[in-house]
């Protein structure tokens, strides 16, 4: 491609509202343009990268035995009502009516459509298992679209769905996808981790892994072991202590209860937070018992964790088997318990009390006294309040022991979720009646898995990991072009002729080349080239008189004067070596 | 691909509501499944064909110098308001609101988005011309979706847009697309004609051609010359007589007016139609003057054509420069003229009268007398009523002289519109302010063209042209697989082993093969193979003992017993010969 003809404009400054580096760079380098909040046009360079990621995904899906189909974006609302999701999906589901006032949803995901399809097409175990996938535009009306392609409202996804006759089959289908995802993200040049994740609203039994590209901008926290392969989303991560508690018998409180003095109330006027308590009392946060009241569905409960720990709402929700959970507001707490904000505690509380394992181990705890401006000290769980509901109700903390090995501790990373594999089980097949006849002629429910990749999000994730102060540095496998060929002075006949010859030879070898044939100053050309981030660069300048060009890898940044033949060879080695 | 694993079910009967052959066959052969009216899932076989058409379109667009981008389906309503189309597009435009109650349209086309984009990106003549395209899902809420993929509500399109500095540039851009379209449809195996078409609601000055796949199910009529290359959509087609009139001076009526007897009123009780007149009076329809009253915008006019001709509303509309046109209802006509339905005529009519050239040539015309139950005979245009507004107001008729050559006559065909190239001019660039600075620094408006291909519709059009009583016959360039390899008895070790060897060798040669490894009766396998329509077939049966297989081209249907090596060679010749 000749750059003179390429529909490309670079920007010196990035628009003020672009927070993420990838968003800034993709705007500045002319890969994307915003049409509305969270809605983008992929410019020719951006489209090329997107297509390369698509092709990698397609190749690896095909290799894993998945079959491509294409389902519609417009989905009849009836399907979503049948699965029970129409009411609960909330405002993220974009809804519209057709001219006959029939309701439709713009698909954010396709469980309903695929399950109905397979229900209608397959009736015998002989035609299972099957894994189907599509690469398709999805819609999700994010409350706060941001970070460019990282959280958009219209985006490209690969979604796959497996159908098996039994759970062992699902395990195998899941493993195939899990492995394919590793190959895909490796080929895209991502630094990623597959982490255990919470099942979330999509529901279903069995395991789930998120594929996280490590990046500071990531909205998820990953807890990974310093020693073994353990890695989990913080929402799911547990610690060695909690893990051993959950397999052992429930604690009856600390073992050395005899040595603790009796509980004692003391005056703490206006001291409502852990921080204030630490400052005024002088004790450590790890000696406090933090109590928070939640409304879970119709139920009201108190959850107690150590003052230095964070409550994990998801864990509480799962423990209670609730659909919805939220912190109770101050008014509700006051009405139900008579206790003003900041002074609630487990001792004598009339609500059911859920106690985190680590809190249950405290011996000289400090807790709210359920009375304005008063706290207790020397609180001992099991002695001063009941310990009938213990569990892992907190976020793992950095430095906690790894739950999966004996040596490691947990270290935290930020991650961008670029993929997700999920054992759905029978959640959808049951509701939508996807049955098959087994070998003995008995009707059974299909066992499903679903597997997503945020194809457009991968672009942003890659840029978050591959850039420097001057711009993007694409991994060669998904770069818009492999080589940027830059004659410095296009009006110099010798330079342009040499550049043209190199261009033709590279094209003949199947290399993707962008020829900067613009009549611009060298500084402008190099600045643009750095920004755009094509991984290999050949500069044709005055030294072409002695047959020399400048060869550079964008990542290394080191320029080398070499002959044109050698430049050609290096390019071919780099392109074919991938 | 092994057929045992392929997500495919064929149907013996086609669903009752599928009218078009292509719709029936694509359902029966398992290429598509309906999700809602006009909304389909492409099953794996259908997805493969769709991808092949996509790739052909992409290759030819790239070869023609167009650059691919990807615009969003969700378009802010403001853009459509700015172009003035939001109000006039009607219920075919699917509209929705986001969670903040901002209005969006689901793009049926992208003139607004692309013009705004290019306006923002390009400001100098130096960066023009440019042609941009995308392959993308479009939405149009058809009043009556039907014929499967031929008239759907969600469909795949290629749309391209060119931007030039002047009209000569547009002509060149248009020609490049015109030629690319020929290559695309040839490669898809379509029998098509490029026909002159009416500019229609999309507006703009300059030419437009439709690419019509010839097929009886087609909703358009094409008038094509028996001699020269002339071909036009009936809405646009003219005849030799009309064409020569329009370039000469307007007629003052027939030349031999002296010999015609005076006008004479006669009683025609209850005779309201041309057919009834022909029967009761005994004259030919071509001697009648048919008069129809139209409301065009605020204007009411009468249009007169010969009794054997059909009025072309579009031609009348263009003549009047009207936005809207419709036949006046009986009540309106009665109120304005006092004449009951069936008896209106041009003689003494108080409305403006538009007379078609052919009608203006009549000498002994029969026309309504503007009085219930009476007609006139011996009506002579120019003598008995004014001929100040003559023009080509009728549809060309089959057998009319060709307007473009001296010998040919017009023949009619039915066609499916698979592509459309269109000189938009400045219609959108003016409204949306797409200006550039010319070489003298003066601000000018960009000159645009737009170019569409109904990618998914091509599938249906191809099937309408390529089938027989047993099923589809895909052209090899877009077939889901190139070879259908069928071992008759999969439990026969010799057969399966030979089939497996052939399969491996074909795959190694890059041939796309579907191996029917199902344990089914030969009859079932052949019936399915015929229905699915893979163009080349190799059957491995008992003769494999003597090294022979059966080779067949689906189109010819003739089976030949040949050696496996020869079968392999024939396949490679057929696949590479395309």
From TrEMBL, chains A, B:
GO terms for biological process, alphabetical: prolyl-tRNA aminoacylation
Catalytic activity: tRNA(Pro) + L-proline + ATP = L-prolyl-tRNA(Pro) + AMP + diphosphate
Assigned keywords, A-Z: Aminoacyl-tRNA synthetase, ATP-binding, Cytoplasm, Ligase, Nucleotide-binding, Protein biosynthesis
Location(s) in or outside the cell: Cytoplasm
Any Pfam family: tRNA_edit
Cellular component, GO annotation: cytosol
EC number annotated for this UniProt entry: 6.1.1.15
Top-level taxon of the source organism: Bacteria
GO molecular function terms listed in the Swiss-Prot or TrEMBL record: aminoacyl-tRNA deacylase activity; ATP binding; catalytic activity, acting on a protein; proline-tRNA ligase activity; transferase activity
Location (main, coarse): cytoplasm
Keyword Cytoplasm: yes
Domain Aminoacyl-transfer RNA synthetases class-II family profile, chain residue ranges per copy: 33-475
Domain text: Consists of three domains: the N-terminal catalytic domain, the editing domain and the C-terminal anticodon-binding domain.
Function: Catalyzes the attachment of proline to tRNA(Pro) in a two-step reaction: proline is first activated by ATP to form Pro-AMP and then transferred to the acceptor end of tRNA(Pro). As ProRS can inadvertently accommodate and process non-cognate amino acids such as alanine and cysteine, to avoid such errors it has two additional distinct editing activities against alanine. One activity is designated as 'pretransfer' editing and involves the tRNA(Pro)-independent hydrolysis of activated Ala-AMP.
Binding partners and assembly: Homodimer.
Alphabetized NCBIfam families for the sequence: PRK09194.1, proS_fam_II
PANTHER family: MITOCHONDRIAL RIBOSOME PROTEIN L39/PROLYL-TRNA LIGASE FAMILY MEMBER, PROLINE--TRNA LIGASE
Family: Belongs to the class-II aminoacyl-tRNA synthetase family. ProS type 1 subfamily.
Protein name: Proline--tRNA ligase
Organism from which the protein derives: Paenibacillus cellulosilyticus
């Amino acid at each position: 491609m000749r750059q003179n003809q390429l529909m490309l404009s670079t920007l010196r400054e990035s628009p003020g509202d672009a927070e993420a580096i990838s968003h800034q760079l993709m705007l500045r380098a002319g890969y994307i343009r915003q049409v509305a909040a969270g809605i983008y046009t992929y410019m020719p360079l951006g489209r090329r990268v997107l297509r390369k990621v698509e092709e990698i995904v397609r190749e690896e899906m095909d290799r894993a035995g998945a079959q491509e189909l294409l389902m519609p974006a417009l989905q009849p609302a009836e399907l979503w009502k049948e699965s029970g999701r129409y009411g609960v999906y909330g405002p993220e589901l974009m809804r519209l009516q057709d001219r006959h006032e029939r309701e439709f949803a713009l698909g954010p995901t396709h469980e309903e459509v695929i399950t109905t399809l397979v229900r209608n097409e397959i009736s015998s175990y002989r035609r299972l298992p099957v894994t189907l996938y599509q690469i398709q535009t999805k819609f999700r009306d994010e409350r706060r679209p941001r970070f460019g392609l990282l959280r958009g409202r219209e985006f490209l996804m690969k979604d796959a769905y497996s159908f098996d006759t039994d759970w062992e089959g699902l395990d195998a289908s899941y493993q195939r996808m899990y492995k394919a995802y590793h190959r895909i993200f490796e080929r895209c040049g991502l630094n990623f981790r597959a982490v255990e994740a919470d099942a979330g609203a999509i529901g279903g039994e069995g395991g789930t892994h998120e594929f996280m590209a490590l990046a500071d901008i990531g909205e998820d926290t990953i807890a990974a072991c310093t020693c073994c392969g353990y890695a989990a989303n913080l929402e799911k991560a547990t610690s060695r202590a909690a893990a051993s508690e959950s397999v052992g018998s429930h604690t009856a409180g600390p073992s050395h209860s005899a040595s603790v003095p009796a509980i004692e109330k003391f005056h703490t006027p206006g001291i409502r937070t852990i921080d204030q308590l630490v400052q005024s009392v002088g004790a450590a946060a790890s000696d406090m018992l933090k109590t928070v009241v939640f409304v879970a569905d119709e139920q009201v409960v108190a959850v107690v964790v150590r003052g230095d720990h964070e409550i994990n709402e998801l864990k509480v929700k799962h423990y209670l088997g609730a659909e919805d959970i939220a912190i109770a507001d101050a008014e509700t707490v006051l009405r139900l318990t008579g206790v003003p904000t900041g002074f609630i505690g487990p001792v004598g509380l009339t609500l059911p009390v859920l106690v985190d394992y680590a809190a249950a181990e405290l011996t000289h705890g400090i807790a709210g006294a359920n009375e304005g401006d008063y706290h207790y000290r020397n609180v001992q769980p099991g002695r001063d309040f009941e310990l009938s509901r213990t569990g892992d109700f907190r976020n793992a903390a950095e430095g906690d022991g790894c739950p999966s090995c004996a040596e490691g501790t947990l270290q935290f990373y930020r991650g961008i979720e670029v993929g997700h594999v999920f054992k759905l089980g029978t959640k959808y097949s049951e509701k939508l009646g996807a049955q098959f006849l087994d070998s003995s002629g008995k009707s059974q429910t299909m066992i499903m898995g679903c597997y997503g990749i945020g194809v457009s999000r991968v672009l942003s994730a890659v840029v978050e990991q591959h850039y420097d102060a001057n711009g993007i540095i694409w991994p060669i496998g998904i770069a818009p072009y492999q080589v940027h060929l830059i004659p410095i002075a296009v009006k110099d006949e010798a330079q342009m002729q040499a550049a043209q010859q190199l261009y033709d030879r590279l094209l003949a070898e199947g290399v993707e080349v962008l020829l900067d044939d613009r009549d611009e100053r060298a500084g402008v050309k190099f600045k643009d080239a750095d920004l755009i981030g094509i991984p290999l660069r050949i500069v044709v300048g005055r030294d072409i008189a002695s047959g020399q060009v400048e060869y550079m890898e964008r990542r290394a940044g080191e320029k080398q004067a070499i002959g044109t033949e050698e430049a050609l060879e290096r390019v071919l080695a780099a392109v074919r070596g991938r």
